[in-house]
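Deviations from the work plan: none for this task. Representative record:
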Amino acid sequence: MGRYIIRRLLWSIVVIVAVTLFSFLIFYVLPSTDPAAAFAGKQQTAELKAEVRKNLGLDKSKPVQYLTFVKTLVVGDKYGWPGFNKSFNTRDGIHDELFRRLNVTLQLAIGALVIWLIMGVLIGVLSALKRRTKWDRAAMGFALLGISTPVFFLGLVSLFVFWFKLKIAPGTGFVHFSDNPGQWFTHLLMPWIVLALLFAAVYARIVRGSMLEVMGEDYIRTARAKGVPERQVITRHMLRASITPVVTLAGIDFAVLLSSAVVTESVFNIPGMGAYVLQAVNNQDLGVVMAVTVLAAFFVTLASLLVDILYAFLDPRVRYT
Amino acid sequence: MKSRKRWIIGAALASAAALVVAGCGGDSKSSGDTGSSGTVTKGGTLRLATTDFGFTNAFDPTGEYLGLAWGYYDNLLTRGLVGYKHRPDADGNLIVPDLAEALPEPSADGLTWTVKMKKGVKFAPPVNREITTKDIVFAFERIGTKSLAAQYGFYFDPIEGMQAFRDGKAKTISGITTPDDSTIVFKLTEPTGDFLYRLAMPAASPMPKEVAGCFTKAGEYGRNLVSSGPYMIAGSDKIDASSCAKIKPLTGFDPAKNMTFVRNPNYDPATDNAEDRSANVDKITIDINTNLQDIFDKVERGELDGSPDTPPSEVIAKYAQDDTLKKNLHVFSGDRTWYITMNLSRAPFDDIHVRKAVNFAIDKASIQQAWGGETSGAVAKHIVPDALYNGKFPTDYDPYPFDVEKAKAEMKQSKYDTNQDGVCDAAVCKNLFHISRNQPPWTKYNPIIAENLKAIGVDVKTQELPTGTAYTTIQTVEKNVPIASNAGWGKDFADASTFFGPLFGSATIIPTGNSNYSLVGLTAAKAKELKIGFPAGGVPSIDADTKACGPLLDQARLDCWIALDKKVMEEVVPWVPYLSANSVEVSGPGMSQYVFDQNSGEMAFAHIAVDPSKQK
């Protein structure tokens, strides 16, 4: 087990290095336009652009730029560790802003995760147990609706209905828990639900499928034959076996969400990682784009590792060699 | 000014105005109307939101080239030797003394400008001392410091010794002297009639060396800007400026979240003109809200008082059609021209008859409708917006009314119409790349342009690109784009020089980042250097004309620019100007007085008033 984890950790490092390399190639090498052009004004003399390039560290050769980025990432910079250097746009250190925003996105993602897991598992179980009934059809109809409805649409509609018209929701924005716990909860409730609906629908379908598969297994029949109460059969035997794919998926989805809740954060004006990267892309702020990409890669590889380990605990058939 | 943000605003305005039917706004074309309503009272907080600050130099005035930032500086934070009234229309484009005791006059040869400064004007905290001419000199030294990347530093090149200072060959700028703390003398290498406009630019406003001198890289001073105006960035009074190491970023400006301006305790209204800066509100907050629609929902509900962003189309339509909201829709000239540019170095646009034919062939009224009708702006008939001519440009001037027969008559005279039927029959008229944007209203009128041009045998293949890509494509000379309709140009200040110089000056033709898209003034040598073709008949130049207008003042200057505008339209014909665009803003019920600032093209923060009882 220990050797497996070490091996996976080493692979994770390789993956992250590969991500930094490919991201650098995509954002710094491949574009035919000069990123400095965005910060050199309307009438750009060659001299001015050269100065802007120097200011942004773009005057050095591409390999040197890449190695500087990796070095800063590993050893840190004056803004902290890991080092992400300065934002092209704000000329301020990326580190603090990135982790401030990660904290906000974590609050959004964790809340949404809890809701979508509860909703997804409950609906999936209900649907499997009441197979081919109106409950099943209603649940799967809901799943279809959740998958098909874009977050931006659901977000805008919910804002229009609950904030603009009914005036029962507080509208957009983010309030820190330490400032006002009540406002924190009410401001996040709608984004949590909107984000959770999309995932809950997917998870409901997965749980339903897994449950149906497990329901026909011999050990379920044996458990029932032994007189195990039906509730225990469902929760201890059926659900436990069905939930493994959910755990795998939830870990990865959660990690991906940390950098990709762009639409939800934009619609609800939540200053998280998604909104940060969107702003960076619009402003050609390559330093921030790279930083978010690397951090996202780190979380996805970490989540992938944790999920694999957790899998063994949930499913006794899985063992590491 | 206004580079990136203006592209965005232009695009937003375009789509925003698209749903507004012409005339539905009634009073939509304001002229001089401040949009004020109710009683103006002092106090309260002006609450604004924007999707993104969009600063080009992180708010350091030495290099910041965003119109909105100039609005913040000039209205609220930085006082130059001269400035503006922060009023709409031609009045708002006039230069007035600010820190100067009176409007300076040039010497007889036009080379020396002596300015006497008011005494008793102080910097805000943490500097708290009287502003002297040394602080103006330091601002100019920052402009000349390469590492600070002054994005419009070229405007100050006529100052003697500026280039030597920039190149490190001199420790001071020889053309700026300060006989005493309240007198400053500028010596120029050539007469520069618009020098006062240049002096009014934010980079030329006083900067205290003890703070600004601590920041030696572009953009860094933006987080620590020391105010000389009626407001300051919140937290300025908490800064310890006893040494550079102790200076921390101001709490009132987080580039990713918000800006807050509060009253500058050292501001003495007696040193200013209340007509130019009423400074009504106590505090101004500008928050970033990534949801544009949400911003305007909040404005309508009174949770915000306004936004510097252009409202979405549905919002403009709603305000234009709803009698209760109409008074809160503010439409003023944006001093910006949108145009189709033709590349004079390549066929068929190397032939003036083709260019004139294109001008006659384009149905500009239809393009205006695609933009949203009159709310979006007036049909442009020449290069420079009328407001910059102070109402002196002949209103009946229309050299190219939409007329297919006239277009064909012009085409007949072209070498590319060999059978003289008014339709281009040369191969060079086929499959011409036409660069445009991939968003409304461009996508709405790209087919109109293609169809119009087909009538005279010019067959364009439209490439619809994102805004930034479209600009970088036409700014790269080597790409040799034949025709493009994505570009617009707004003034840097209210003088036609800010159009003719950068847009048609041969000196501005550079390999990348070029703004002279038509390549007016291209020479054979430069074409070779840029690796592009050069037409046998040459390319016209207006360099001599621009140089002739440059030193002139007042009416003579206006007349000169007007004559040049007509010459460009009739003898050079590099463009099809199609829209003289408006600036559109809406305000919330809590804003008791709205005033437009013609200079910055944004609301005049210096005059806005709020009514807290109507704010939510």
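The first helix of chain B runs from residue 3 to 17.
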